[in-house]
Protein backbone atom coordinates (compact mmCIF):
# COMPACT_ATOMS: atom_id res chain seq x y z
CA UNK A 1 0.00 0.00 0.00
CA UNK A 2 2.88 2.33 0.84
CA UNK A 3 4.47 1.64 -2.55
CA UNK A 4 1.23 2.39 -4.40
CA UNK A 5 0.81 5.61 -2.42
CA UNK A 6 4.32 6.70 -3.41
CA UNK A 7 3.63 6.04 -7.08
CA UNK A 8 0.32 7.89 -6.89
CA UNK A 9 2.06 10.94 -5.47
CA UNK A 10 5.11 10.74 -7.70
CA UNK A 11 6.24 13.01 -10.53
CA UNK A 12 5.57 11.41 -13.92
CA UNK A 13 8.00 11.82 -16.79
CA UNK A 14 6.70 13.04 -20.17
CA UNK A 15 5.70 10.23 -22.54
CA UNK A 16 7.60 11.80 -25.47
CA UNK A 17 10.89 13.68 -25.78
CA UNK A 18 10.55 14.89 -29.38
CA UNK A 19 8.11 15.44 -32.24
CA UNK A 20 8.26 15.60 -36.03
CA UNK A 21 7.86 18.68 -38.19
CA UNK A 22 8.09 17.35 -41.72
CA UNK A 23 11.50 15.67 -42.06
CA UNK A 24 12.83 17.41 -38.93
CA UNK A 25 12.88 15.94 -35.44
CA UNK A 26 12.36 18.62 -32.79
CA UNK A 27 13.69 17.66 -29.35
CA UNK A 28 12.12 19.22 -26.27
CA UNK A 29 15.60 19.19 -24.72
CA UNK A 30 16.81 21.59 -27.42
CA UNK A 31 13.71 23.76 -27.05
CA UNK A 32 14.34 24.10 -23.31
CA UNK A 33 17.92 25.20 -23.92
CA UNK A 34 16.91 27.65 -26.68
CA UNK A 35 14.19 29.10 -24.46
CA UNK A 36 16.76 29.65 -21.73
CA UNK A 37 19.13 31.41 -24.13
CA UNK A 38 16.39 33.73 -25.38
CA UNK A 39 15.16 34.59 -21.88
CA UNK A 40 18.72 35.23 -20.70
CA UNK A 41 19.35 37.52 -23.69
CA UNK A 42 16.24 39.59 -22.95
CA UNK A 43 17.04 39.96 -19.26
CA UNK A 44 20.69 40.75 -19.93
CA UNK A 45 19.72 43.34 -22.54
CA UNK A 46 17.42 45.02 -20.05
CA UNK A 47 20.12 45.17 -17.42
CA UNK A 48 22.86 46.33 -19.81
CA UNK A 49 20.61 49.03 -21.26
CA UNK A 50 19.85 50.24 -17.73
CA UNK A 51 23.59 50.66 -17.23
CA UNK A 52 23.82 52.79 -20.37
CA UNK A 53 24.83 50.29 -23.02
CA UNK A 54 23.46 50.45 -26.54
CA UNK A 55 20.22 48.42 -26.79
CA UNK A 56 20.72 44.85 -27.95
CA UNK A 57 24.51 45.00 -27.96
CA UNK A 58 24.06 41.70 -26.12
CA UNK A 59 23.19 40.09 -29.47
CA UNK A 60 26.60 40.99 -30.87
CA UNK A 61 28.27 39.40 -27.87
CA UNK A 62 26.04 36.32 -28.01
CA UNK A 63 26.97 35.72 -31.65
CA UNK A 64 30.41 34.71 -30.38
CA UNK A 65 29.65 33.54 -26.84
CA UNK A 66 26.81 31.09 -27.55
CA UNK A 67 28.59 28.97 -30.21
CA UNK A 68 31.75 28.79 -28.09
CA UNK A 69 29.64 27.88 -25.06
CA UNK A 70 28.08 24.96 -26.94
CA UNK A 71 31.48 23.80 -28.18
CA UNK A 72 32.94 24.08 -24.68
CA UNK A 73 29.98 22.21 -23.20
CA UNK A 74 30.45 19.33 -25.61
CA UNK A 75 34.21 19.13 -25.12
CA UNK A 76 33.83 19.09 -21.33
CA UNK A 77 31.24 16.32 -21.55
CA UNK A 78 33.41 14.18 -23.81
CA UNK A 79 36.48 14.65 -21.60
CA UNK A 80 34.54 13.70 -18.46
CA UNK A 81 32.85 10.72 -20.18
CA UNK A 82 35.86 9.45 -22.09
CA UNK A 83 34.78 5.82 -22.01
CA UNK A 84 31.55 6.63 -23.87
CA UNK A 85 33.40 7.62 -27.03
CA UNK A 86 36.87 6.06 -27.04
CA UNK A 87 38.01 2.48 -26.73
CA UNK A 88 37.35 -0.86 -28.36
CA UNK A 89 33.96 -1.04 -30.04
CA UNK A 90 33.21 2.67 -29.55
CA UNK A 91 32.03 4.99 -32.32
CA UNK A 92 34.41 7.95 -32.18
CA UNK A 93 32.18 9.93 -34.54
CA UNK A 94 29.54 10.01 -31.82
CA UNK A 95 31.41 12.90 -30.23
CA UNK A 96 30.01 15.11 -33.01
CA UNK A 97 26.39 13.95 -32.62
CA UNK A 98 25.51 16.53 -30.03
CA UNK A 99 21.79 16.17 -30.79
CA UNK A 100 21.92 12.80 -29.07
CA UNK A 101 22.66 14.58 -25.79
CA UNK A 102 25.77 15.23 -23.80
CA UNK A 103 26.66 18.81 -22.89
CA UNK A 104 28.13 20.08 -19.64
CA UNK A 105 27.35 23.45 -18.07
CA UNK A 106 30.86 23.89 -16.71
CA UNK A 107 32.29 23.52 -20.20
CA UNK A 108 29.67 25.98 -21.41
CA UNK A 109 30.81 28.48 -18.78
CA UNK A 110 34.43 28.19 -19.90
CA UNK A 111 33.64 28.43 -23.62
CA UNK A 112 31.02 31.10 -23.06
CA UNK A 113 33.40 33.20 -20.95
CA UNK A 114 35.99 33.12 -23.74
CA UNK A 115 33.33 34.06 -26.27
CA UNK A 116 31.94 36.83 -24.06
CA UNK A 117 35.44 38.27 -23.57
CA UNK A 118 35.97 38.32 -27.34
CA UNK A 119 32.50 39.80 -27.86
CA UNK A 120 33.15 42.51 -25.30
CA UNK A 121 36.45 43.38 -27.00
CA UNK A 122 34.53 43.65 -30.26
CA UNK A 123 31.67 45.79 -28.94
CA UNK A 124 33.61 47.84 -26.39
CA UNK A 125 31.55 46.67 -23.40
CA UNK A 126 33.45 46.04 -20.18
CA UNK A 127 33.71 42.29 -19.66
CA UNK A 128 32.80 42.45 -15.97
CA UNK A 129 29.85 44.75 -16.69
CA UNK A 130 28.51 42.18 -19.11
CA UNK A 131 29.18 39.31 -16.68
CA UNK A 132 27.26 41.06 -13.90
CA UNK A 133 24.37 41.88 -16.23
CA UNK A 134 24.30 38.29 -17.44
CA UNK A 135 24.47 36.52 -14.04
CA UNK A 136 20.72 36.42 -13.15
CA UNK A 137 19.69 35.58 -16.71
CA UNK A 138 22.30 32.83 -16.94
CA UNK A 139 21.00 31.18 -13.80
CA UNK A 140 17.43 31.47 -15.11
CA UNK A 141 18.52 29.92 -18.41
CA UNK A 142 20.02 26.99 -16.53
CA UNK A 143 16.77 26.51 -14.62
CA UNK A 144 14.79 26.38 -17.87
CA UNK A 145 17.35 24.14 -19.53
CA UNK A 146 17.06 21.54 -16.77
CA UNK A 147 13.53 20.72 -17.90
CA UNK A 148 15.21 19.14 -20.91
CA UNK A 149 16.55 16.41 -18.59
CA UNK A 150 12.99 15.75 -17.47
CA UNK A 151 11.82 15.27 -21.06
CA UNK A 152 14.80 13.01 -21.79
CA UNK A 153 14.34 11.05 -18.54
CA UNK A 154 18.03 11.39 -17.71
CA UNK A 155 20.41 12.57 -14.99
CA UNK A 156 18.09 11.60 -12.14
CA UNK A 157 19.18 10.82 -8.61
CA UNK A 158 19.22 7.95 -6.15
CA UNK A 159 16.11 5.81 -5.52
CA UNK A 160 13.66 7.36 -3.08
CA UNK A 161 10.31 6.70 -1.40
CA UNK A 162 9.55 10.41 -1.05
CA UNK A 163 6.17 11.59 -2.43
CA UNK A 164 7.91 13.65 -5.11
CA UNK A 165 9.92 10.72 -6.45
CA UNK A 166 10.40 10.77 -10.21
CA UNK A 167 8.94 8.05 -12.43
CA UNK A 168 11.22 6.78 -15.18
CA UNK A 169 9.98 4.64 -18.06
CA UNK A 170 10.98 0.99 -17.83
CA UNK A 171 12.97 -0.38 -19.56
CA UNK A 172 15.33 2.55 -20.02
CA UNK A 173 18.95 2.49 -21.29
CA UNK A 174 19.98 4.46 -18.21
CA UNK A 175 18.04 2.26 -15.75
CA UNK A 176 20.35 1.15 -12.91
CA UNK A 177 20.97 -2.59 -12.95
CA UNK A 178 19.25 -4.54 -10.21
CA UNK A 179 16.47 -2.07 -9.43
CA UNK A 180 12.90 -3.31 -9.95
CA UNK A 181 10.36 -1.70 -12.23
CA UNK A 182 8.39 1.01 -10.44
CA UNK A 183 11.37 2.38 -8.51
CA UNK A 184 11.18 6.13 -7.98
CA UNK A 185 14.20 8.43 -8.14
CA UNK A 186 15.19 11.82 -6.79
CA UNK A 187 14.16 14.46 -9.38
CA UNK A 188 17.51 16.23 -9.42
CA UNK A 189 16.37 18.32 -12.36
CA UNK A 190 13.61 19.78 -10.18
CA UNK A 191 15.93 20.39 -7.25
CA UNK A 192 18.22 22.38 -9.53
CA UNK A 193 15.30 24.27 -11.09
CA UNK A 194 14.14 25.39 -7.64
CA UNK A 195 17.66 26.23 -6.45
CA UNK A 196 18.48 28.21 -9.59
CA UNK A 197 15.16 30.08 -9.50
CA UNK A 198 15.78 31.12 -5.91
CA UNK A 199 19.26 32.15 -6.98
CA UNK A 200 17.86 34.48 -9.64
CA UNK A 201 15.83 36.30 -7.00
CA UNK A 202 18.83 36.42 -4.67
CA UNK A 203 21.15 37.84 -7.34
CA UNK A 204 18.64 40.51 -8.38
CA UNK A 205 18.18 41.52 -4.75
CA UNK A 206 21.87 41.44 -3.81
CA UNK A 207 22.94 43.31 -6.93
CA UNK A 208 20.52 46.13 -6.22
CA UNK A 209 20.90 46.17 -2.43
CA UNK A 210 24.71 46.21 -2.38
CA UNK A 211 25.42 47.70 -5.84
CA UNK A 212 27.63 44.79 -6.84
CA UNK A 213 29.75 45.65 -9.86
CA UNK A 214 33.19 44.83 -11.32
CA UNK A 215 32.27 41.14 -11.57
CA UNK A 216 31.22 40.66 -7.95
CA UNK A 217 27.64 39.76 -8.86
CA UNK A 218 28.92 37.17 -11.31
CA UNK A 219 31.14 35.86 -8.51
CA UNK A 220 28.02 35.36 -6.37
CA UNK A 221 26.47 33.47 -9.27
CA UNK A 222 29.45 31.07 -9.32
CA UNK A 223 29.23 30.55 -5.57
CA UNK A 224 25.45 30.03 -5.54
CA UNK A 225 25.31 27.70 -8.51
CA UNK A 226 28.41 25.76 -7.51
CA UNK A 227 27.18 25.20 -3.95
CA UNK A 228 23.89 23.76 -5.17
CA UNK A 229 25.51 21.69 -7.89
CA UNK A 230 27.81 20.02 -5.36
CA UNK A 231 24.72 18.64 -3.59
CA UNK A 232 22.65 17.65 -6.64
CA UNK A 233 25.61 16.12 -8.43
CA UNK A 234 26.44 14.03 -5.36
CA UNK A 235 23.10 12.20 -5.48
CA UNK A 236 23.01 11.60 -9.25
CA UNK A 237 23.58 8.02 -10.42
CA UNK A 238 24.38 8.49 -14.11
CA UNK A 239 27.85 7.26 -15.13
CA UNK A 240 30.69 9.72 -14.60
CA UNK A 241 34.44 9.68 -14.15
CA UNK A 242 35.42 9.67 -10.48
CA UNK A 243 38.62 11.14 -9.04
CA UNK A 244 39.58 10.79 -5.38
CA UNK A 245 36.08 9.60 -4.58
CA UNK A 246 34.21 12.50 -6.19
CA UNK A 247 32.52 12.85 -9.57
CA UNK A 248 34.20 15.19 -12.04
CA UNK A 249 31.30 17.64 -11.92
CA UNK A 250 31.54 17.80 -8.13
CA UNK A 251 35.18 18.83 -8.49
CA UNK A 252 34.14 21.35 -11.15
CA UNK A 253 31.47 22.79 -8.82
CA UNK A 254 33.97 23.06 -5.97
CA UNK A 255 36.37 24.83 -8.32
CA UNK A 256 33.56 27.17 -9.41
CA UNK A 257 32.83 28.14 -5.80
CA UNK A 258 36.52 28.77 -5.15
CA UNK A 259 36.87 30.91 -8.28
CA UNK A 260 33.77 32.88 -7.29
CA UNK A 261 35.19 33.63 -3.84
CA UNK A 262 38.50 34.74 -5.33
CA UNK A 263 36.83 37.00 -7.92
CA UNK A 264 34.58 38.58 -5.30
CA UNK A 265 37.32 39.60 -2.88
CA UNK A 266 39.99 40.43 -5.47
CA UNK A 267 37.61 42.69 -7.40
CA UNK A 268 36.34 44.28 -4.21
CA UNK A 269 39.92 45.20 -3.30
CA UNK A 270 40.94 46.30 -6.79
CA UNK A 271 37.77 48.30 -7.52
CA UNK A 272 36.23 49.75 -4.33
CA UNK A 273 34.24 52.33 -6.30
CA UNK A 274 31.57 52.10 -8.98
CA UNK A 275 32.11 51.44 -12.65
CA UNK A 276 32.27 54.80 -14.46
CA UNK A 277 30.65 53.37 -17.60
CA UNK A 278 29.58 50.05 -19.08
CA UNK A 279 32.04 50.76 -21.92
CA UNK A 280 35.78 50.35 -22.02
CA UNK A 281 37.70 53.66 -21.98
CA UNK A 282 37.43 55.32 -25.37
CA UNK A 283 34.70 52.92 -26.58
CA UNK A 284 31.63 54.73 -25.24
CA UNK A 285 29.79 54.70 -28.56
CA UNK A 286 26.62 56.59 -29.39
CA UNK A 287 24.10 56.65 -26.60
CA UNK A 288 20.87 58.54 -26.19
CA UNK A 289 20.08 59.80 -22.73
CA UNK A 290 22.12 59.40 -19.57
CA UNK A 291 22.30 56.65 -17.03
CA UNK A 292 23.04 56.17 -13.39
CA UNK A 293 25.84 53.65 -12.98
CA UNK A 294 24.62 52.48 -9.60
CA UNK A 295 21.39 51.07 -11.01
CA UNK A 296 21.59 47.70 -12.74
CA UNK A 297 18.03 46.48 -12.39
CA UNK A 298 15.80 49.25 -13.72
CA UNK A 299 15.70 51.67 -16.61
CA UNK A 300 16.79 55.09 -15.47
CA UNK A 301 16.22 58.48 -17.11
CA UNK A 302 18.42 61.16 -15.60
CA UNK A 303 17.79 64.56 -17.08
CA UNK A 304 20.70 66.32 -15.34
CA UNK A 305 23.97 64.35 -15.45
CA UNK A 306 26.64 64.83 -12.79
CA UNK A 307 29.13 67.62 -13.46
CA UNK A 308 32.02 65.18 -13.95
CA UNK A 309 30.15 63.30 -16.65
CA UNK A 310 29.11 66.54 -18.36
CA UNK A 311 32.71 67.78 -18.35
CA UNK A 312 33.94 64.50 -19.77
CA UNK A 313 31.34 64.58 -22.54
CA UNK A 314 32.25 68.19 -23.34
CA UNK A 315 35.95 67.37 -23.49
CA UNK A 316 35.30 64.40 -25.75
CA UNK A 317 33.20 66.52 -28.09
CA UNK A 318 35.92 69.18 -28.22
CA UNK A 319 38.58 66.66 -29.14
CA UNK A 320 36.36 65.08 -31.79
CA UNK A 321 35.70 68.47 -33.41
CA UNK A 322 39.41 69.22 -33.95
UniProtKB/TrEMBL annotation:
It is a multi-pass membrane protein. It comes from Microbacterium flavum. NCBIfam families: lgt (TIGR00544). Its EC number is 2.5.1.145. The chain crosses the membrane at residues 28-44, 56-76, 96-120, 127-145, 189-207, 214-232, 244-266. PROSITE patterns: LGT. HAMAP family: Lgt (MF_01147). PANTHER family: PHOSPHATIDYLGLYCEROL--PROLIPOPROTEIN DIACYLGLYCERYL TRANSFERASE, PROLIPOPROTEIN DIACYLGLYCERYL TRANSFERASE. A 1,2-diacyl-sn-glycero-3-phospho-(1'-sn-glycerol) binds at residue 146. Catalyzes the transfer of the diacylglyceryl group from phosphatidylglycerol to the sulfhydryl group of the N-terminal cysteine of a prolipoprotein, the first step in the formation of mature lipoproteins. Keywords: Cell membrane, Glycosyltransferase, Membrane, Transferase, Transmembrane, Transmembrane helix. Pathway: Protein modification; lipoprotein biosynthesis (diacylglyceryl transfer). One of its GO terms (molecular function) is glycosyltransferase activity. Belongs to the Lgt family. This is Phosphatidylglycerol--prolipoprotein diacylglyceryl transferase. The lineage of its organism: Bacteria, Bacillati, Actinomycetota, Actinomycetes, Micrococcales. It is found in: Cell membrane.
Amino acid sequence: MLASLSVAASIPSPPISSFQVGPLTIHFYALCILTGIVVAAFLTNRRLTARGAEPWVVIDICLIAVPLAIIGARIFHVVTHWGFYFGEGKDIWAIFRIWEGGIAIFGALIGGAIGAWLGCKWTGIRFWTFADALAPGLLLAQALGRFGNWFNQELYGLPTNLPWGLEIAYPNPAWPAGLPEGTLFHPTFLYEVIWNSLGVLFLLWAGKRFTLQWGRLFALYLIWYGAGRIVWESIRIDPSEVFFGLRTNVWAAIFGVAVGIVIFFVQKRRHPGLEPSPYQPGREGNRSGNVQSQNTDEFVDVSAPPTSELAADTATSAVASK
